[in-house]
Amino acid sequence: MNVLALPALRLTALRDVQEKRLTALIASDSAWSALRGTLQLPLLTQAHPIENSREFFEYLAAKFPTDAEIIYAVGADETVLNAAKYVAQRVKRPLVIVPEALSSAECLTPYIHLNTERLVTGAASEVILDVALLNQNLPIGAIVDVLSIITALMDWNYAHQHNRTAPEAPYRPWVASLMAGFAAQALKIAEGIGKGEPEATNHLLELLCLTVQMDNLLGHQCGSHGTEHLFALALAQQPEGAAISYADRVACGILIASALHKKDVAPLRKALESAGLHPTAVPSPLARAALNALPDLAKKHQAPYSIAHDLQPNSEALETALQRAGLS
Hints:
Rossmann fold; Iron-containing alcohol dehydrogenase; 2 domains; 8 strands; two-stranded antiparallel ribbon; 6-stranded parallel sheet; 13 helices
C-alpha cells in the first residue's frame, strides 16, 4: 500500500514568513497583487499561468531556472495550483502553497486534474495559511469539499447496491460511518464559517485534512466525490457556468445529487446558505443542461459508478430533481 501524504500546515501571519531560498513564483495576478506587499520572497523568476494544460506546464518546467531552490504557489486558482504541483514534480523542487482564500481542498491534495486525467503529483511540501486573511476573503467555499461527503456516500452505496463498485473501491461501511461524521461536523460549523469565525475556520481545516487523508488512505475518492462534483464539472464546461465559483457549482451539485437520491434537501440548503454560498443561484436552463449532460460526462471521465450513470436526459425524474432542489 502506498499512502500519499498531506502537506505540512503552517498557520501564521504572512508578514512573519521569512524565506531565504531563491524562489520561483507561480501565482495568479490578483492574488500576487494583493499579497506581494505582505509576503516577502527572494524572487528569482515568476509565472502567471492562464492555461490549464499539460503542454503549457511542460513549457514552464522546461524554462525553470536551475538556480531556483523552491517554488511558491500564491493563490487558490485551480490553474495556479495545477501548474505549481506539476512543475514541482518535474523539476524536483519543494513546493509551498499560499492560498489567499480557502475556496477548495485542492491546496491539500496530491494530484491535479487535466481534462479527463487525474495525475498524481504528490502534495506540496507545505501550505501556509493566514487564518485572519482567509476570514477576510469570504465565503470559505472549501466547506463544499466536506459536505460533498453526504452525497458521495449516497453514490458509493448506490454502486454497492447495484454490484458496480470497482475492485479497488469496495464499499466499506466503517469508512462511510467515519466520513459521515466529518460531514456532520461540517453541518454544525457552517454558520460559523459564513460569519468568518476563526474557530470554525480552524475546525474546517481539520475536517479538510481528515477528508483528503481518508481519500489518500483509500486510494480513491468515492467517499468524497460523486454526482455533485460531476455536476459542477458539467456546469463549468458551459460558458455561463464557468463564471460561477467552484464552491457554488459544487453546492448546487450537492442539492441536485441529494434530490436525485430522493432525500430531503432542506438541511443541506440551509447549511450551504448559512456558510455564505448560493446553491440555488444557478439559472434553471443551465442546471437542466448540466443535469442532462451527466450520463455522457460520467462515461467520458470514467467516473466511479453512481446514480449519474443511470440518468435519462430530459426525463420526468430529472425535472422532479430540479424541483426538489429548488432549481426549476
